[in-house]
């Protein structure tokens, strides 16, 4: 059963979406050479405190995690794809960094991610990887309309990714968002169009394509959390929290 939220609830979700979007924009500005991943995490934590929000990650302890996450931000660098546990690593120019951030504010969750190249001078292959993720995200969001089916979102993401020559991992993908970070449904990053539950206005989804350059397989780093590409290739990941509407999908985590 996919939860649906009233127009009033959607209004109550806007502040957390704005907060997550604004904080990610700020972190993007701060992610320069010489800054550590722990400093980025501390910065995000400070913003959470100021806003009176709660991290969705800090106590997060699913079956696949070695222990509670303990940080408020996922920082995945280069061959790290998802769930990057911040550690004492100093960023340098050319690092490919994904930041994934989810909090609860006034009882509602928003979840979003972006990928950047430290120093702002990406290689053509990093540019292509990031651009493809962003195009896939946009294509997925465009399917989040009442009357479409869940498989339309998955298919749109998968099609953009495959057309660019990437292979898609369907083990980790998007999800419903509401009172908690992970709600029904699960939204794989590839699938068949016109299949699955029919979308209805008020459903809220985190849509999150992620790609690795030359593989779809990951392994878990010795930190117990960070998922890395099996062949060392680089990874990008982008995400927005989106409301299904009768018309244009509503992106709650829009960045400036
Ligand atoms: Mg996320």
- Flag low-confidence runs: none
CATH topology: Creatine Amidinohydrolase
Order of helices and strands: HHEEEEEHHEEEEEEEEE
Instruction: Output the radius of gyration.
Output: 17 Å
Beta-strand content bin: 15-25%
Query: What is the distance, rounded to the nearest whole angstrom, between the alpha carbons of the first and last residues?
Result: 34 Å
Mean pLDDT: 97
CATH architecture assignment: Alpha-Beta Complex
Could you describe the 3D structure shown?
The protein contains four helices and 14 strands. The protein is α+β, with helices and mostly antiparallel strands and 256 residues long. It has one domain: Creatinase/methionine aminopeptidase superfamily (Creatine Amidinohydrolase, Alpha-Beta Complex), CATH 3.90.230.10. A five-stranded antiparallel beta sheet has the order 7-6-8-13-14. Strands 1, 2, 4 and 5 form a four-stranded antiparallel beta sheet that branches. The model has no long low-confidence stretch (mean pLDDT 97).
